Amino acid sequence: MQIYIPLVRQQIRNIGSASVISSTSKVLKPIKPDLSTISCTVVDQTGTVPIPRDLRKIDSSNVDVAPSIAVRSNGILVNLLHIKALIKRNEVLVFDTASPQSASKLSLFMYDLESKLQTKVVHSGMLGINNGNHQNILNQTYEFKTLECILVNVMAVLETELREHAAKVDKILKQLDSQIDRAVLKDLLVNSKDLTMFYQKSLLIRNTLDELLDNDEDLENMYLTENYEIKRLIVDQESDGKSSVLKAAKQDGSSNVNTNSNHHSLIQEGSESKDTGEIEMLLESYYKQCDEIVQQAETMINNIKSTEDIVNIILDANRNSLMVFELRVAIFTLGITVATIIPAFYGMNLKNYIEDSSIAFVGVTAVSVVLGGIMAIIYLRKLRDVRRMTMVSSKQLDQFDNDTKRGIHEKVRRQRESKTLEQRRKLEKEIVWKWLLGDHK
């Protein structure tokens, strides 16, 4: 099975036949600058080809792949931004990239990685087991050094991009505060898209770290050096047990020695001594840093959306003002048109019997002006009523008023009826008391 990954130097050892070596040498060709990927088949030291399904996560092509950190028993596959690497307990395979922008970032990462690995970090983690006693090694393990260096570089790149986006967005928002320009709005749209892409990218990285922190099995498997030491001690213990059994069988003639108990006890001791606090603290620190970057990017996106809403409101208000101004001009034009109708009628060459009147001109002019003014006033009032922003229509308001008035009248009528009924009962009681007392007046 062939995998499209960049070529790395692989040491092929213990391969029996020369034909296998010649066939693998044909496959392992050097990478060319104009090729983003090449076909490569990896052969391990035992001569077998491993199942390469995990290596699909690492691709040097220009297609963006979701970030991931895949943990396996003998390695950690890392795909974060421009860094695509395979971390082992004693080596790391950093894959090349075809993007010129990513290549410059990757070169800086390589210098940082070299200096980081050459520096000894004092660390008091349990990295090995020797005859059942915990042995503290003062140096941080190789895989943790490499992983931390990758995370440091990734967070530095994210912070740099965040500062660039923040500077551009702040400049555009300040310009929009003073003046709304078409070119500035276009720049805001472009930067908003770039910021959204950055937000999605940083969010995926944060989710990757979060998923890794929630998986205890992956956290335990990330201790590559410690797991290797435990496996090696188990193998040595098994070999020592078998040799002791054979010696005891030769000397005593019996083979009743049980080595399974030592094997299980060593496995149980190794599993009980596994503490993932070191890697959890490392991942949590960079998870919080990435989460802070995500929160800042989200805040900037919200600021952009708020600014866009305010700009839309201002533009809508200006558009409405222009429409109202246009309607007012149309209303005044209508009034002038109505005012010129009557003089137009008198402009015809027909007898109207007021040609000789001295007040005809003044009267016709006054009537025309009054009609034009009345027409303009009527439509301006209607325009004012239309501009009133209400949640219900005028018909609904009239119906509500009528219902309210009807309810008030009904309440007043009931109060009057109750007062009349009380007065009638009171009068009847007074008549009964007078009749009982014998006062018939």
TrEMBL record:
Residues 251-273 are annotated as: Disordered. Keywords: Ion transport, Magnesium, Membrane, Mitochondrion, Mitochondrion inner membrane, Transit peptide, Transmembrane, Transmembrane helix, Transport. Its main location: mitochondrion. Pfam families: MRS2-like (PF22099). It is a multi-pass membrane protein. GO terms for biological process: mitochondrial magnesium ion transmembrane transport. Residues 254-265 have a biased composition (Low complexity). GO terms for molecular function: magnesium ion transmembrane transporter activity. The chain crosses the membrane at residues 327-346, 358-380. InterPro entries: MRS2-like (IPR039204). GO terms for cellular component: mitochondrial inner membrane. It is found in: Mitochondrion inner membrane. Homopentamer. Forms homooligomers. Interacts with MFM1. Belongs to the CorA metal ion transporter (MIT) (TC 1.A.35) family. High-conductance magnesium-selective channel that mediates the influx of magnesium into the mitochondrial matrix. Essential for the splicing of mRNA group II introns in mitochondria by affecting mitochondrial magnesium concentrations, which are critical for group II intron splicing. It also suppresses a variety of mitochondrial intron mutations and its absence may disturb the assembly of mitochondrial membrane complexes. This is Magnesium transporter. It comes from Pichia kudriavzevii.
